[in-house]
Amino acid sequence: MKQLSIIPCGRKKIWDRYENIGAVQASDAYIGTLHHLCRNYAEAFTDDWVVLSAKHGFLFPEDIVPGQYNVTFNQKSDEIITNHKLREQVQKKQLDQYDMLVILTGKKYKPVINSAFNKDQPRTYPLLQYSGIGYMQQALKQAVQDNEPIRMKDRS
Q: What gap in Å lies between CA 88 and CA 76, rounded to an integer?
């Protein structure tokens, strides 16, 4: 079963450290703790990963990010990528060809993902069972350390 992880970009970016670095690959652009833990998890347990950016949409590691930006999905801005463009990217980048989407984001990304992908495409949100970013980070780190993917807890 071919799996794709979708990971958040995060507020901290390479330009916060190196202001004049210019354009970089997505794999080098995002430097926050949660982003790196999600990336480590994705590399350990899924076939491929993309970053979901409110400005640029779905970015494969080799895609180019031209420079600094500070846009999130929960704000109002003309810079936020539209749902239509996200759906176009899903088709163009063949993200709909994966058997399972492993979405390593918080709940604010769920409506964005759900509008970008066909509702029938299987997906899982393993981090939504945790009540805060600290618990999410701990679960990601522990999963990679133990070489055991995060299991959904029974909520009964």
A: 21
Query: In whole angstroms, what is the distance from residue 129 CA to residue 153 CA?
Result: 7
Task: Please give the structure tokens belonging to residue 69.
Answer: 């930006």
Point out which residues pair with 8 in neighbouring strands.
Answer: 52
E strand intervals along the chain = 3-8, 24-25, 48-53, 57-59, 64-65, 100-103, 123-124
pLDDT of residue 64: 97
Give per-10-residue mean pLDDT for the chain (156 aa). 96 94 96 97 98 97 95 87 97 97 93 95 96 95 97 64
Question: What CA–CA distance (Å, rounded) separates 133 from 139?
Answer: 10
Closest to 128 measured CA to CA, from 144, 117, 139, 118? 139
Burial grade of 145 (CB within 10 A; 0-12, 13-18, 19 or more): exposed
